[in-house]
Design a protein that fits this description.
This protein is an alpha+beta fold. 56% of the residues lie in helices and 13% in strands. A hairpin with a 2-residue loop joins strand 1 and strand 2. Helix 2 packs parallel to helix 4 and helix 4 runs antiparallel to helix 6. The two termini are 64 Å apart. Pfam families: BAR_3, RhoGAP. This is Oligophrenin 1.
Amino acid sequence: MGHPPLEFCDCYKDSPDFRETLKCYELELERTSKFLKELIKDGNSVINAIKGEHLLCFHVQVQNASDLLIKPLEKFRKEQISATKEKKKKFEKESEKYYSQLEKHLSISARKKDSQLQEADELVEKERQNFYESSVEYVYQIHQVQDRKKFDVVEPVLAFLHSILTLNNLTVEMTQDFMPYKQELQLSLQNTRNHYESTCEELEDLMKRVKHPSYISKMQNFFPMEGFLFCQEKRALGASWVKYYCKYSKEKKQLIMVPCEQSPTILTLKSCIRRKTESIDKRFCFDVETVERNAPVTFQALADGDRKLWMEAMDGKEPVSLLCFYLVKITQEGVYRTVGSNIQVQRLLNAFFDSTSSTDVNLHSSDWEVKTITSALKFYLRSLSEPIMTYDLHRDLICAAKSDNPDVRLSEIHSLTYKLPGKNRQMLELLINHLGKVCSHSDENLMTPSNMAVVFGPTLMRAKEETVAAMLDIKFQNIVVEILIEDYEKVQLRQTNSAKKTIFCFQVCRSLPIQFNVIYVAQYYNTVVSTTCVRKNNSHNY
């Protein structure tokens, strides 16, 4: 039974299947080497036996038989099998160097200087190229041995047998019986040699082309997506990164993860998003949401280009890019109430949602006024397909706000916030926390909880249908938001230390109907400055 085909293109992926196929050919090579040793030994035994008969008249034929069998086989062992073993040693050496360097490379912190990262990238790319070339050359040499042994080993044996059978007239009858088989075999050997010689140059040319970097990039466009990934797995003593060989089927949306010496794991893909550098200390990472696991699975690719290929295969999305909206001096009078220029607000939003730009909008400059930034945030929140405080809870919240008992109002509103979807609730908590900080300086900015509620009531809450009753309930929307701001420390699920500088991050998310995700809050001290952060999303809804 033949071995699986050994292709040059398999060298690039270096898959477990490729390594197993290599082992098959290596075992075959060992068997061939052992067979040749035994064949040479048996040939010498036959020659020595003939010499031992003291048949001087046959010494010339015996010496000729030795030249026909022993020398060609020894030459084949030296030039082909020994050369293949040398290529194997080089392949194993380069393989060890590359994967050792790769593990060091992948453990480098993403927070290193760009110059250091670039130097590390160049080093690992050099090792990868050396490994790839040694792999291609090794496969080429294996093909050489496999092809040449079909005639370089059989032809000497055939010639030797013919020489032995023609030593004297007693073997004439045997020779006549042998001749048809010999002629058929000679024809087959000649065809095999002709085929080898006609394809040898093409094979060598293909090897040279395959080693060229341009051919590698060309191959990537035709391969099904597969390769090594490191998966972050949580253990009792902390997280660790486990190496898997992964294959992705785009039709089935299945990711097959093959660990070392274990059964493969099959995951059904829901979504794929690139991890931002600042969110993880590792480089080249992306998150995959699957049907089988509750939490996203974080993978680390071998390089940035490798990650792009995986994300392209999985229809991956870029993460929302963090943009900082600086609200200088939350003590500024009328902050959030003062309206910015419509033209400037639209210009900011257009820049913010520009799908062709992969960089964050620079808001450090004085180009963007505080009122433009606050107006853009309010406009975006109002433009969501569903408000943060969802349609389903709108009626209940209005009813709670109409209660005459302040404690009941607070209790019911607090209870209803827990019925919001998890990410909506997190966003609301952090937004209200931010507004609470702003209102704590109402003696300077004149933005009391009541005033702030007038601004954000219609932004965070609205009825599904615009009716007269809904118009009359607007004041109760404001009451809900006012209560949340006044008692934000009681209502929010996460308590935060008091700070004079708050960063409020609002990010858009594709996974929610209203297209937003969690807001993260970082606390800083010293200067009384508040920063509102908004994130890009190419699939926004105005």
